[in-house]
Amino acid sequence: MAKKTNEQSEWKAEIDRAERKQRLANLKDSDGRKKKISSKSIVGRIASIVIVVALILVAAVWAVARFGVLQKSLTAITIRNSEVPGASMTMSPADLNVELGNISMQAQLGYAFTDEMQEMLERTTSGDRTLRDDLIDLTLEQMAPTYAMVLAMNNDDSFVLSEEKLAEIDKTVRDFEVEMAQGAQSQGVGVGRLLESYFGPGVSSSHYMKFVRQSLMLQEYNQHLADTTEVTAAEIEEYKEENAADLKIYSYSSYTFSLPATDDEEELTEDELEAALQELSEDAAAALELYEKGEMSFAEAMAEFETDEDKLDKLKDQPEDLDYLMQGSRLTSNQKSWLTDEEREAGDTTVIESTKTVTALVFHSADFEDVYVYSVRHILIDASAVTGSDGDPVSNEQIKARAEEILAEFEAGAKTEEAFAELAETYTSDTGSIDNGGLYENVPYGMMVEAFQDWSLDESRKTGDTGIVETDYGYHIMYFVGLGDVKSIDHRVEALAKTEKINNLSQSLIDGVEFERHSFGMGFVGRKAFFKSLFAGDPAAVATTPSDD
């Protein structure tokens, strides 16, 4: 056995020696001397390596350009806020291009990354500036309010959403992504190609969904601020005092006299117009004098100087239309300064001139409303809720008849609030209250149209009352739920004071926003061509605020 093993070893060694001799022989020429190394062989090898490397580089550059690698990985801007110390966030060129693409469409410039639009963006607007520079500045300016809140949201530890709400947001994002893909397919293009024409290279569907999710999160954050912001009793009282003129309810009578209509050929000269207005003002003043004597109502006094037959008929048939109860913030500008004067007393009168009209005005009172908030359910029946015959227009009588049918259906049933809510969800045309059974809760004075409010605040109104009210919106089938525990004015002031506080916070965040522009990354903003972007840079690559832009 040992002898056999030795024979095998000797046999392998003999083969190895033969192979080495052959390799050495291959290195010698026919004279037995060592062969020279061919320069052509070395050049060929180097050339092959260079070609391979070049092809790899070309492929790499193509991939980087085609898939927007630099657009996604570079930093275009850094966002900071003096109101949120230490907080910052960065945006890549691809991120900024999403915002720029949206602004381009909002400004009706078109899709920013089509070939035609890219050419347009190269056009000079002033000096060395191009339309692209202007669009970038506009984008940053428009971004400021949104990203002021985004930065605050990202650094607000009190803002925590439930798992259910986060799952709801995720589902909304997924559904939107599916709808977007279907929309692209209906246009005969892939969603990637569609997004590229909107936002440039590097913006994929998943990348864009980041912004959809951010928008949904911001909605929740704004609601979070509304739910958690509190105002003190002192802040409420201060707001009430400072804004009393806008908050008070003004009682007054008003009637407007107009110049007679003229044909275009009979246009009055400036002097004729002045004389006609002067005469109209004298008539209005004379009408007010008749009223002040106490022998005529306001409408009767105005009728004495009205020459238009149609207007005369309306004055006689609807004199109550001249009496107003109006919240100060809703007064017309030409009447507000006079009516809200702190020295104004009941019975004061004036004449206010406009371009072609004159208004007679009587002040009665101004005070905060002395009523409580109320809750009511309603079913709105408008033309859309009634089917006409053979496509004929629906008449007002048909709409009213339909409302009466539904009220009769309620009266024939359980006649409970729950039963009314079910009917509202079935029949109402009011999309704002359909999901909660037609309910409007804790309604302050002045929120609803006059007829709706008057019915709800009638002194005889009690829980469970029903009725039908006509407004410009249609017919409202009403169900009175009851009065609240809070005075309407207190409810209004608290809500307004809270809104002002939130708005002040938002404005301070917007004012504190600062954008730091990074030159290399900004070269890829608003540009599709890779090599132009690579060497473009950004002449404005400095820290800027929205007001600077």
What does this structure look like?
The protein has 549 residues and is an alpha+beta fold. Helix content is 52%, strand content 16%. The protein has helices at residues 2-26, 39-66, 69-73, 93-106, 115-121, 131-154, 163-186, 191-199, 205-228, 233-242, 244-247, 270-292, 298-303, 309-317, 333-339, 396-411, 417-427, 450-456, 488-511, 519-522, 530-536, and strands at residues 77-81, 88-91, 124-126, 129-130, 249-258, 323-327, 349-353, 357-367, 372-381, 439-443, 466-471, 474-487, 513-517, 543-544. A four-stranded antiparallel sheet has the order 2-1-13-14. The chain has a four-stranded antiparallel sheet with strand order 6-5-8-7, with helices on both faces. It has a four-stranded antiparallel sheet with strand order 10-9-12-11. Strand 11 and strand 12 (474-487) form a beta hairpin. Helix 4 (93-106) packs across helix 6 and helix 10 (233-242) crosses helix 19 (488-511). 23% of the residues are buried. The model has no long low-confidence stretch (mean pLDDT 89).
**Spatial sequence of strands, sheet with the most strands:** 2-1-13-14
Number of helices: 21
Percentage of residues in DSSP E strands: 15-25%
State the secondary-structure class. Answer: alpha+beta
Unreliable residue runs:
none
Shape annotation: elongated
Number of strands: 14
Largest beta sheet, briefly? 4 strands, antiparallel
Quaternary arrangement of the chains shown?
single chain
Distance between the termini: 95 Å
Helicity, as a percent range = 40-55%
Rg, rounded, reads: 39 Å
Estimate the mean pLDDT confidence: 89
